[in-house]
C-alpha cells in the first residue's frame, strides 16, 4: 500500500513533489543548526562588547543566507549531486591551484581567492568536494573492487593532491583535516585495517620531511605547544591566555558580557578562532558542555542520516560531511584548551567569518539532500 | 556472526553479474559500513569525551588556579619606583637630590569616563589648556592601568579639596612621589645638568620611565651617568578583586635605588669664582695632578629646577634668544683661539724636532718678512735676540713665527694633540666639543692649499685653532705635571672611588723632562720676573709661586691701514675687541692646581685675564686649606 502511495506521489505534478520534499526535510536538523548559530550570535554579541553591529548581526544575516542555500541544495535530487561530484571537485582543485598561483596573502599564508563580493577559501570548499567525490567513488564499487589496490591508489591521489596544495599554502591544520576526512571516507567504505596501518606507517616516516618543510611560525606553534611557558609573551601567549580565560570561567562562568579576559583583550582573536574560549569564560563549564553537546548532536545527526540512507552514496556523503564538521570542532576546541598546537582552525557556525560557514552549510545542504532522497536508488554496484 | 565480510570465502561468494551476486555484495557493503560506522561513531564520541574531560580539568579542577591567574592578568604587575641617585660635591654638599612631591594621578581604567573626571577635577583645581593637552597626550600613550599625573606639587589645601570631593572623582588618587631638586641652582647647572620628562623614545626602553613623574637626565652629569643614577624599578603583584580593592600582595620585588655620585667640584669655590667673573668669561680650575675639575664657571648660567616642572615658552625664548646663551657651558663648548698660551706647545714641538735648541737665539726686529707678507710682533720695536725662555717670558711673536716655520704645521698639531688640544677628551660630560688643531691634510681635504704663511700665523696660536677653555686648562695641567691627565668630574659612584684619582693613574706624556722644565721656567719668569708679560698673576704673600702665560687673540684681523693710522684696540666696539686668556698653575715647584681663564673681548690677556686668574688661584688655596 505504501509503495503504491509513493509511486503515486512520484507521478504527481511538480508542485506537490516539492511540497512532499519539503515535508521530508530534516527540520530537527535545521533547528539544531539554528541553535548552534544562535550560540554563535550570543558569543559574537559578547565578543563585540555588546555591540551587535561589530560581528553578531553580520553573523545572523550570513547564517540566514547560508541556511536558505542549504535548504535549496537539500531539495536537489541526490542523483544530480552524484553526477555533479566530479565537476565540483574539478572546480575546487582549479581554485586551489589558482590561489597557489596568485592568491591574497593574509597572515603569511596564501589562502584566499577574491571573487568580487565574497572571498572564498578554496581549501574549505575542497573538503566538501572531496567528500562528495570519494562518496561517489566508493558508492558503486563492489566489495571486491574496494579491496583492489589499483582502485584505491587513484582515490588516495584524490586526497593527497589537494592536501599537498593546502599544505603548501601553508595551512597545516586544514591540510591535516583534509587527509583525516579522506581517511574517514576510506574507513567507512571498508578499506582493510592493514592498509590503514601501511598508510599510517608511511605517513609517520614522512613526518621528518614535513617538519623540514614547515614554516617558522608553524614550528613555533609546535614547540610552544610542548612548552608554552617558555615564551609567555610570544607564540605561547595565545595558548596561555586561552587556558587562563577558559579555566577562569569555572563551573558557572562569569556571566554574559562578564568575561574579563576576553573583554580586556587578553584573549586574542576572540571573535574567530577563540570564540569557544569566550563562551567557556562567560558561561562556564556548564555553558561549554551545553555548546559541545549541541555540536555533538549536529555530528550525530549526520551519522543518523547516513544510516537512514538506502543508497551507499548518501551514506558515505553524510558520514564525510559529519566527519568534516567533527574535525573542525575537535581541532578548534582541542586547540583552545591547549591540547594540540594552535592551528588557526575556526569553529564554523559560531566563529565570525563567512568562508567556513558557507562551505559547512553547503555540506549540510548535501546531507539534507541525502536525507530527503534517502530512498533513492543509484543503481547496483559495478565491477 | 553469520555474515563475515572479512572472510575470503564470503567475498568469493559474491558472484558478479548475477542479480544474486549484486544483492549479496550490497549486503556485505552495508554490513561493513554499519560496523565501521559504529566504530567511527564510537571514536568520535570518545574524542568528544576527551574534549569534555579537558574542559572539566581546566574549568572545574583547575578553575580556581586559572581564576587567580585571570585576576593577576587583569592587574598585571605594578611598578615601584626607585629613587634617583643623589649627586654631591667633593665636600658632601648636596647638589642634586630628591624632594617629596604630592600629586594627583588619574588611572584611566578606574573611571568610566576620563573626560568627565577631568572636568570635575578642573572645577576643584583649575587646569590650564596646556595641562589638559598634556594629560590627554599621556593618557593616549600609556597603558590604561598606568597612572598619569594630572597636577603636581599640590599644596595641603588643594589636597584637602581633592579628598573631600573624592566620591565625584573616580580614577583620581593622591600620591607622593619625588621630584628632582638642585639646591645649588644655577651655580652648578652646567656640570650637574638637569632632568626632564622622558620622550616617547625613552618610554619603551625601561619600565621605570612609565611611572608618573619619571625623569631622564638631559644634560651634564645627570645625562652622562643616567644609567647609574636611574636605578631599577621594582614590581608588586597585587591580588585585586573586580572592584579594585586590594586583597593581598602576591609577590613583591623591591626596586634598586640609583647610586649616589660624588663630583669633584667644590660648590663653594665655584660660587666664589662665579662671583668674580662677568658674563662671557669662563674659568676652569683643575687638580693638575689627577685632572679632577674643582670649579668650572661659565657666565651666565640657568636654574636647572625650572626644567622639572616644564619650561614655559617665554622662559625658553629668554634662554635661547640673544648672544648670552645661558644654557651653553662656554668652558666646555665655547671655542677660542689659544693665542700666545699655545707658544709652549710650539716650543716643545721645536725642541722635539731639534729645529731649535734651548739656548738658540732668534732675532726679533719687530716683524718677520716671508715672501710678500710681513708678520708683526706685538712689540713693534722688536725684542732683539732671544732664547726660548725669554721668548715665552716676553711672549715674542717673531721667535715663534720662526720656530713654527722650521717645525711645520703637522708636527705642531701632533704635539697639540698630546696636550689634549683638538682631540676628544675623556671627560664624563656629554656634548663637550673637540676643537680643532689643523694639519696640512685637513686643509687640503677642504680643497685649499696650506701655505708657509699659514704655518707662521699658527706659531702664535692664531689661525684655525679653536679650543675650549677646558682643553686649554688640560694642556696647562699636562705642562705642569708631564702626565696625560684627563679632566673629569666623577670622584666616586655609590661610595666607591673611580679610577683616575691618583696621579699614577695617568701615563707620562713621554716628553723629556728637560724640555718641559724649560717651558715651566719660562712660564715662571713670565709671572714672577721683572718685565714678564703675566706679572699681574703673581701670587701675594707665602702661597707659593704661580707660573703662567697670557694670551690675546684677535677676533678680527687688524688691517694695514688700521696699523698705519695708529691702531688702538680700546677704540674698537666691544664685540670686536680681542679675547683675553691666561693659563697657569701653582705652586711652581710642586704643581697642585691648573687654571685657565678666557675673558671674551677682554682686550689683553695680561691686563684682564691674569689678575682674575691670580684671584681665583688665591681663592682656591684658601678654600682647600679650609677643606683639608
From TrEMBL, chain A:
GO molecular function: lipid-linked peptidoglycan transporter activity; peptidoglycan glycosyltransferase activity
InterPro entries the UniProt entry points to: FtsW/RodA (IPR001182), RodA/MrdB (IPR011923)
Cellular localization per UniProt: Cell inner membrane; Membrane
Membrane-related topology note: Multi-pass membrane protein
Catalytic activity: [GlcNAc-(1->4)-Mur2Ac(oyl-L-Ala-gamma-D-Glu-L-Lys-D-Ala-D-Ala)](n)-di-trans,octa-cis-undecaprenyl diphosphate + beta-D-GlcNAc-(1->4)-Mur2Ac(oyl-L-Ala-gamma-D-Glu-L-Lys-D-Ala-D-Ala)-di-trans,octa-cis-undecaprenyl diphosphate = [GlcNAc-(1->4)-Mur2Ac(oyl-L-Ala-gamma-D-Glu-L-Lys-D-Ala-D-Ala)](n+1)-di-trans,octa-cis-undecaprenyl diphosphate + di-trans,octa-cis-undecaprenyl diphosphate + H(+)
Pathway involvement of the protein, from the record: Cell wall biogenesis; peptidoglycan biosynthesis
Keywords: Cell inner membrane, Cell membrane, Cell shape, Cell wall biogenesis/degradation, Glycosyltransferase, Membrane, Peptidoglycan synthesis, Transferase, Transmembrane, Transmembrane helix
Record keyword Lipid biosynthesis present: no
Gene Ontology, cellular component aspect: cell division site; plasma membrane
GO BP term, example: cell wall organization
EC number: 2.4.99.28
Origin: domain of life: Bacteria
Membrane-spanning segments: 21-47, 59-76, 88-105, 125-142, 149-166, 172-189, 196-214, 283-304, 316-337, 349-372
Family (UniProt): Belongs to the SEDS family. MrdB/RodA subfamily.
HAMAP family registered for this protein in UniProt: PGT_RodA
Function summary: Peptidoglycan polymerase that is essential for cell wall elongation.
Protein name per Swiss-Prot or TrEMBL: Peptidoglycan glycosyltransferase MrdB
Species per Swiss-Prot/TrEMBL record: Rhodovarius crocodyli
Gene that specifies this protein: rodA
